[in-house]
User: Fold this.
Amino acid sequence: MWRKEATAVSDAHTVHQLAYLTPAQPHGITRMVQGTGRKYVRCINTTHRRTASLWEGRFKASLVDSEAYPLTCMRYIELNPVRAAMVAHPGDYLRSSYAHNGLGKADSLTTPHALYGALGKNAEEVRHAYRELFPHQFGPSEVHAIREAPNQEVVLGREDFKGKIEAMTRKRTRPGQPGRPRIEEPQASR
Assistant:
């Protein structure tokens, strides 16, 4: 139904989960989220004698350019506990896929992305090359673009990729301008 390439779950005050998932079939991720909502939430509510949703808001996702952005998204996700000042290094955070992707710890739920696997000739080379990506910090505009893509329902990727998606779907793939559109003043006739 879907493959998980990266994840980080934090629970400072509310559970916050970031994940990079690849659907194995159309609507696979949406169905996974629905299934979780139907089964897991019911189990938690029954166990703890509570009602209502566990989620604070709606599920949000963004289409990602699979040829250019997977490793960027994986790093963003696995560095989230570092950005939140929960740990000093992504390897120190237990509930992150960095343990699998960067350190080689077994995780039956994490499936390596093809670009991750192409980082080296063997597993150790891949992990070493992946770890070498982490000292490079994200700039504020990169963090903003990745963070806001799901909120604004826009595509995360190269401009040519966004253009192809716009042509295929006839939907906006880039963030719009803030505020209401300007209304043109009618020209006074002379």
Q: What stands out?
A: Helices lie at 28-47, 70-83, 98-101, 114-117, 123-132, 140-152, 159-169. The CA atoms of residues 4 and 51 lie 29 Å apart. The first strand starts at residue 2 and ends at 10. The chain has a mean pLDDT of 84.
